[in-house]
Amino acid sequence: MTEDAKLFTIDxxxxxxxxxxxxxxxxxxxxxxxxxxxxxxNRKAFRNYEIWYRxxxxxxxxxxxxxxxGIPLRAPIIVAPTAYQKLAHPEGEVxxxxxxxxxxxxxxxxxxxxxxxxxxxxxxxGPKWFQLYVHKDRGLTKSLLDRAEAAGYVGIVLTxxxxxxxxxLRDERNxxxxxxxxxxxxxxxxxxxxxxAEAGSALSSYAASRHDPSLSWxxxxxxxxxxxxxxxVKGIVRADDAGRASDAGxxxxxxxxxxxxxxxxxxxxxxxxxxxxxxxxGRCDVLMDGGVRWGSDVFKAIGLGAKAVLVxxxxxxxxxxxxxxxxxxxxxxxxxxLANVMALAGCPNLAAIDRDVVRRTG
Length: 362
What we know:
The chain is α/β, with parallel strands linked by helices. It is built from 13 helices and 12 strands. It has helices at residues 10-20, 23-30, 37-44, 92-102, 117-123, 138-150, 169-174, 202-210, 218-225, 239-247, 269-280, 295-303, 313-344, and strands at residues 49-51, 66-68, 71-73, 77-79, 107-109, 128-132, 156-159, 231-236, 252-255, 285-289, 308-311, 358-360.
């Protein structure tokens, strides 16, 4: 990337990615459900929180490091699971995992990846989580858990907000389908399910036919019995659900509305975060995703009790532009912005960022 083309913000990365991605691919990554109210609310809601900065604090050194489930991170920013990353770059999830490792963080591989569990594990020595959709075929689901553990992944991220997919109108209008040569390679027997679509979204049809809508709290024990890996539950917005998940003994809760791609009209995740943190009461780590585009967003999430945030779309934009280097550049940008906000707010480390510093307006 030349100096003239230097990208200064995550929005700059998105604009650059939009220019290089095919319309169907850009719309797939960019889209939310229905009117996209929740998609927009995730970003807008961060403006409702102010940073009540401290002064006369020695911030010569700012320490952004933390750990999640015992895994050391350079900053509290983790790569969220995102499907079909070869739509963004030929090396797909392999490049994204390499970029995450370079940035000193965790990469989360989607069940619907276009690179295999084993390929990603072989390519990147960095820490990796595997995101799990529970299928009606529990034998297939168990095989995914077994493969992730055998390949050295260090956590399972169970997505619980997708018994079926929200209606993503951009995908429906584009008749979204994977182009020839790409498939859900970890689900070989159903790899053709989203390879072609005559009307509507083939992905939506796949989810309706394969995801298990009977998934319930009792299945936490089933997953525990079939994997020894730490378990995080992703897709919670209610405080009582967060508390129930921690009561069930999960290792982490991810406050998430699926990036605004499921229930349109769901609360913004930054608004849902504080009550969920209180309900969990320190029994497990609480993370969040949705709408994070600035280091100040990361700062606000930490101040409201998140141990770390997950980012999805920003990583895809970096991947589309420059592969692994683009991914690490996006993650480094967010970390540098976070460190800058910490200095200006009088917070030399993450422990200093609390609810006294981050307050809701009004």
